[in-house]
């Protein structure tokens, strides 16, 4: 309540009148005029009425105290029962704060940013944003409901988002521990067959380093090593890249009983294999038009080291030419097929005939080379159906088809078989979608009995034309015609001979993208894409196992012949496993070293310094079985003492002005009565 003035005349005039009244009153008193005192009172009352004093009374409303409750909904809160603890604790906090009408709670839910590949828990940023519209004096405190894994902690000595007690309610169980494995250093690329070095580390979070851990290493799904890793120390590992293209390395450490989660017990690293030099041995039985097509194709690839021999003069040919006059070199059979056969990635027999150039035992060496992981391509001509066919040698044990002895000479369009339309070697060849195919014709094919493996191309009257087969660890392909060169020459428009030959060669050398039965997955930002290749029927749905441990069944949609695919935007980030039947693959969505995955245990240590500085409290919401919350203690004024058992909330003294009531002191009957009383008293005194 206060008094203010709203004068009817300007203050300068009122001041002049007041001076005149003062002089008049002083003169009257000095000369002793009767009634001078009453005249002074009357003049003062008149001046007061002209000044119009007002009695002011403000109507104010007490403002509420704002308390933000910052709720951690990050990925680490999903596991180990923390989500249930969080929900229960949040309900309990709302119920307790509801008992204090002057306290207004603000629930701030903080989850992972769906657009980032590097998820982290940013609670302090969320707190600053949530309180940006609130005057600092109204904030009575803040409550963090979290597991303690916070990644935007400001410096303790820096200015904090609020100047009030900060309290931390920690989910999880006391004395948690967790074991995880992490790839510390590893190459992204490696030359196939060469040794590579990498480093991994096992962590034991939440306890002292335990005993040595066994780490299982898998390459492309096959176990290749078991390592002994001391927790906390770097563990080196040497390996060789087995194939070109993407190679998925998986490191898994056995789950420790009682640890928080096993989802971070695995780590993956993808290394792209690079073939430095593909060594190809091309052996042509005799000069023919198709020989140049093979040679030109292989020589045009800078990554191919080609060794090419054409048998121009077999040993049995005796024409009397002196040896010193021959410009031909002897065929180094022992060097190629005994000493250095393992150095070749691919051996091609192009219209080769058994003519005693190779000892019969050497064919057995070639068969062993294939069974041990090598690759063999037979480009057959008429000689393959004759008496000197290599199918009559020990090589027959690995050939997928046996010739019948018939050679068909008739024009035909090479066509894809039902399997060929799905097989990655022949799927999508330019011109294959028409009938007849938009290719030139061939005019010769070699008849074979029912072949093994997959027949992906058909010739005259549906006879096998291209047969692909796996033999033990290696692979064999048979092209049962020598007229592929017609496509290279552009006969009747030609055909996709470059794509076909190249795909055959790369399939033989186990290129991952050309596997006919495969499940692959990749991450594009937060989108998971999985592709299933098959030459069989619909493979059925796929199962996604999330980093949090939950599983989801997802239908695979046909994207083309032999291709089934799904795409799904992921809310979680981390290591996902996709399975379909007997096939499985791992893929990491998001950044591998994202802060959200570096530690999973709950901790009180991160918030303790801030609670100490602001006179707050840090406590666990669970004692191992039940959820319990500390009491709330509202206080007025500055918080000077930290309460170890209660959450102190500083009540605000701020108010909001709703209105002002004014009462004129010299207005109305009251003011008139005072003036009349003063004048009447003056007359009464003078009349005596």
UniProtKB/TrEMBL annotation:
Coiled coil: none annotated. SUPFAM superfamilies: Class I glutamine amidotransferase-like. InterPro entries: Class_I_gatase-like (IPR029062). The chain crosses the membrane at residues 12-30, 663-684. Gene3D superfamilies: 3.40.50.880. Keywords: Membrane, Transmembrane, Transmembrane helix. This is Glutamine amidotransferase domain-containing protein.
